[in-house]
Amino acid sequence: MAAILARAGAGATAAGGLRSSGDVRRRRNAVAVVAATTTTGAGPAVPQEGSMERPAWSGETPLSRLVGALIAFKPLYSLMKLASREVIIRTAEKSNVPWREMTKQVLESDVYEVFDRIRDLNLVYPDYYLSPFHAYDEGNLSWLAAAEAEPATMSIAKRAIPDAGSIEEANQIVRGNWLNAIEEHHLKYSGNCQINDILDIGCSVGVSTRYLAEKFPSAKAVGLDLSPYFLAVAAHKEEKLSRQNPIRWVHANGEATGLPSNSFDLVSLAYVCHECPARAITGLVNEAFRLLRPGGTIALTDNSELSPVLFTLMKSTEPFLDEYYMLDLEETMRQAGFVNVHSILTDPRHRTVTATVPF
């Protein structure tokens, strides 16, 4: 594990470190903290300062325009979309993720009964959410997307830590670093406020929500998502578990949850922002600020830099990827009222941005 962490940290430092003066124009204004893996014995990694940069292929660059032109050509777009899906499935199967078996188990279960209980028929979906996502024409509003979400998540962890001996080990690193970043930020800036109430916005099928509930077992956790299909899978899986505080699942829009103000100590958005246009990300951050108590922590974990090839494949299934990379997320959080804004590269492919609601 230590050797794998060291290699992961080397990749993270390379992705987040300073570049040549010719690339300064692309550098983000915000200072980030890059999670190094220099450890003392079995101790935790020590964060180091670095700069998070806007990738060369985002925005109005020749490469970005080329990718946009490729996607605009429908026959090629269809091939790119299929290729992106194949990359994820192939990676999963090579890593011994039983993709098809896991999908079949969900689709042949009684999850459909849970769907009827959890869906809010009065919910109006924002226009951006009705776009195709992840090679699904219906986006997140389909059973296949919901059934494949967990194996896809497992595949992402393995791709982030390719030297891990198993999916479980990759998840320990990816999720462990993310959870540690949250805990350390809250301990440092919350004024000794306990984490009693957690909201996981964009919880999908509940993978991140379950990790949060296990990390903070005395807290009450709520998983909220726009997709009743995802929530039905999350709730169905949770019914089989025994937990001190069962997770509550809410079908709602993360930009306007309808939940009471000042009612949470931690709001998490895990791998949500890259799927949203800039206006929606701003709305999510503002809503999180409203929902958090003074001293509460927001934690957003999402993509850092990707290779141009992977970006090209992802952009064919992620319509708002450019907007995510062009947005100064740290400044957006400050404008919402957050303080103590910090970014950590928690693995070579993902960063976690944490901040605090002032007292």
UniProtKB/TrEMBL annotation:
Pfam families with a match to the protein in the record: Methyltransf_25
Domain of life: Eukaryota
GO molecular function: methyltransferase activity
Domain Methyltransferase, first and last residues per copy: 198-296
CDD domains the UniProt entry points to: AdoMet_MTases
InterPro entries per record: Methyltransf_25, Methyltransf_Superfamily, SAM-dependent_MTases_sf
Extent of the signal sequence: none
Stored PANTHER family: METHYLTRANSFERASE (PTHR42912), METHYLTRANSFERASE DOMAIN-CONTAINING PROTEIN (PTHR42912:SF80)
Record-given protein name: Methyltransferase domain-containing protein
